[in-house]
Amino acid sequence: MKKLWICLFLVSVLFGWIPATDLLAQSKADGDGIIEPDESADEELVKAAQNPVADLISLPLQNNINFNFGPEEKTQNILNIQPVWPFALTEDWNLITRTILPVISQPGFFLGDDRENGLGDLTFTAFLSPAEPGEWIWGAGPVLLLPTATDDKLGAEKWGVGPSAVALTTDGPWLYGALVSQIWSFAGDDDRDGVNQLLVQPFINYNLPDGWYLVSSPIITANWEADSSNTWTLPMGGGFGKIFRIGSQPVNAQIQAFYNVEAPDNGAGWQLRFQWQFLFPK
Question: Tens digit of pLDDT for each residue in 201-236?
């Protein structure tokens, strides 16, 4: 638990310094001095919040509840802390960094095993992306796997690396695209299986008035180290969300539900995902 509190402290320090004036710049005062949202700015914010390589600082907190997990068909909970931090490299190129730190509560796999709570393995991705994209918005770069798990049951105990890429486009109220990454392990505990995993996350959004939207963004994975009957996790489903403000703070909240039409042995039957994303526009 010590590692967990250190990581949470660093995240809070990282985002706590952002000036409130940056947020107020997205609003305007009426004649009575009351702050009201700038509708045009909010429309741009909706598009940026749905773009994985937008030039936008954000802190998504994504909670995944996995039902019927393990041989005892119990519930696993994974909270992903996912800070996104962009950097302007030149006038033409941005570097979008994305870190995912999972906080896991996992039931025991065997009779008498206790539930294990702690950190999972951290992944870090750096997307190189054009500062002025065209019809298609894209980014590409390396993804790293770091063995930060606080217990061997919660991580692979391996170091890994591989490529990652994302592409998306808009068509009226529609926004759609996909993120793809592949990780291979290159070091770590020799007694553990190697990591050879593909992740594909297609996403499609249909934007509605007043910040509401429909969304489907399943996370498809393939474990190439497993046998053919345990390779794929294939969820299907979706949900809805809304971008709104708490005072001057923009927030993107959503809920999605997925049924796993394909899953490895002891994999979850279905999943409920909640996401609460703090947005820090420039």
Answer: 999 999 999 999 999 999 999 999 999 999 999 999
> What's the domain count of the chain?
1
Residue type for position 117:
N
Q: With CA atoms as reference, report the closest residue to 123 among 168, 86, 156.
A: 156
Domain with 233, as residue range(s), is 2-280
Q: Is pLDDT at 98 greater than 90 in this prediction?
A: yes
Residue-wise pLDDT tens digits, 70-91: 888 899 999 999 999 999 999 9
Q: What is d(CA 281, CA 36) in angstroms, rounded to the nearest whole number?
A: 16
What CATH number has the domain bearing residue 6? 2.40.160.40
Indicate if the pLDDT at residue 249 is higher than 90: yes
Q: Which residues pair with 78 in a beta bridge?
A: 64, 104
Q: What is the pTM of this model?
A: 0.84
Cα-based angle 152, 116, 122 (whole degrees, multiple of 5): 50
